[in-house]
Design a protein that fits this description.
The protein has one domain (2-113). The protein has helices at residues 19-28, 32-47, 60-73, 80-90, 92-108, and strands at residues 2-8, 11-17. The radius of gyration is 16 Å and the shape is globular. Helix content is 52%, strand content 11%. The protein is built from 5 helices and 2 strands; from the N terminus they run E-E-H-H-H-H-H. Strands 1-2 form a two-stranded antiparallel ribbon.
């Protein structure tokens, strides 16, 4: 299982980059793909000087819940309340940024390792779908 390492208020945490984490986040908090799509639409609208209201929320509650689920799926045992307190101590905006980076890694897969046009990762070639 791949993990994403973060430091929340000085405490290291491993976050699962797995189907189990994606599935739980989708069913218990928000669909990560929808959230990132809406964030991109909002950014594009703001850059164009337009207003846009995302169809999903991404506040501190969602960020804490996402990080909590991800650490549980990686084998962590921190309670939701403890994660929330840690995140509040870390800072709301910083916590949202950490959760956003995690989600980008979760939905992006190993794409950072893919060579453009090559179809191979830095390790073994990926199986091709038919």
């Amino acid at each position: 299982m791949r993990t994403h390492s973060v430091k929340i208020d000085g405490q290291k945490a491993a976050l699962s980059l797995s189907w189990a984490a994606m599935s739980r986040i989708t069913s218990e908090v928000v669909d990560p793909v929808l959230l990132l799509t809406e964030a991109a639409r909002e950014r594009d609208a703001l850059e164009a000087g337009e207003s846009y209201t995302p169809s999903v929320s991404f506040g501190i509650q969602q960020a804490v819940e996402i990080l909590h689920i991800a650490q549980e799926e990686a084998g962590g045992d921190m309670s939701l309340e403890d994660m929330g307190n840690l995140c509040v101590d870390h800072g709301t905006f910083e916590t949202q940024a950490l959760a956003g980076e995690y989600l980008a890694n979760l939905v992006g897969g190993k794409s950072a390792d893919v060579k453009m046009g090559g179809g191979k990762t830095s390790g073994k070639p990926r199986a091709r779908s038919k």
